[in-house]
Amino acid sequence: MSEIIQQPLLEVKDLKQHFNINMGAFKTKPLKAVDGVSFTINKGETLGLVGESGCGKTTVGRTILHLYKPTSGEIWYNGKKIETKQDIMEFRKKATMVFQDPYSSLNPRMTVADIIGEPLDVHKLYATKEERQARILELMSHVGLNSEHAARYAHEFSGGQRQRIGIARALAVNPDFIVCDEPVSALDVSIQAQVINMFDELQEKLGLTYLFIAHDLLVVRHISDRIAVMYLGKMVELADAATIYERPLHPYSKSLLSAVPVPDPKIARANQRIMLEGDIPSPLNAPSGCPFRTRCPYATEQCAAEMPAFKEVEKGHFVACHRVAEVN
Ligand SMILES: Nc1ncnc2c1ncn2[C@@H]1O[C@H](COP(=O)(O)OP(=O)(O)O)[C@@H](O)[C@H]1O
Ligand code: SF4
Ligand SMILES: [Mg+2]
Asked: Tell me: the pLDDT tens digits for 115-128?
């Protein structure tokens, strides 16, 4: 966590990403991968984004970066709405993404120097060959790789090292904002902490702002200033990292935490354990009303009839649950 400046760098307003799925016989149906998500990230802040696989986290990240055109909603960067092609091009120089799978996101037949140098070439970020080489070596040193690695191929490296190469590549454009899409999920548990610490140090050193995606609350706990929890394309809770961890209010956040070992017995007792039953429904057949109602032990008729609003129940603590007062 670095110094946070209380000024939004990124504002996401009622973002929707609906994919048209071909149902045969010339019929399509919208798959609501992201369905009305709003949040801001301040300069220097890390917002953790968590939720089970398939809840729409990657789609949020990709849509923010305009790798997908938003179905609706607004994205503001540094106080300016991103609208035109020119805005998107400018934004892409300042915002980038680190991918989940370091095995498939790097071309194994390219050398480390060429992988890291590619964005420098694309955005013409150097004047001479020597400058290009010096910048590649600088980026490698940021992520703990040394110059001997430059001429080697991506497939020669371990998962953790590949992820370092991916991070150096993301840093090449000198970004202010990085979407980190489950950057440690594919790595051995033993090296996850190292890579997360590296993200932390880089944030401090380079003044970065992160949207840090994970399906596991433990992974984002230490790096996040605030945490947002998603379920079936919607945001269900958002609060300070410590608050989400110690006093989650939404039944889904409580259930996610029930799966996490909590060292402090007082906190463990305060969070009634809720075990999740069944699978997350398909976003093609999302339940009416509250998306979590088919798995929620507190669900009532109202939950089936009405979608709960995402409301600020305490300062900075937002929850979407009709029964937030009764279940806590
Ligand atoms: N390009 C796409 N076309 C159609 N459906 C997609 C596409 N990308 C993701 N989805 C669907 O959108 C939902 C959310 O996916 P995703 O954002 O990858 O979730 P997460 O990252 O949380 O696992 C899933 O049901 C997934 O199958
Ligand atoms: S709105 Fe109803 S179903 Fe949804 S989380 Fe709250 S109690 Fe459970
Ligand atoms: Mg994903």
From this structure: 999 999 998 899 99
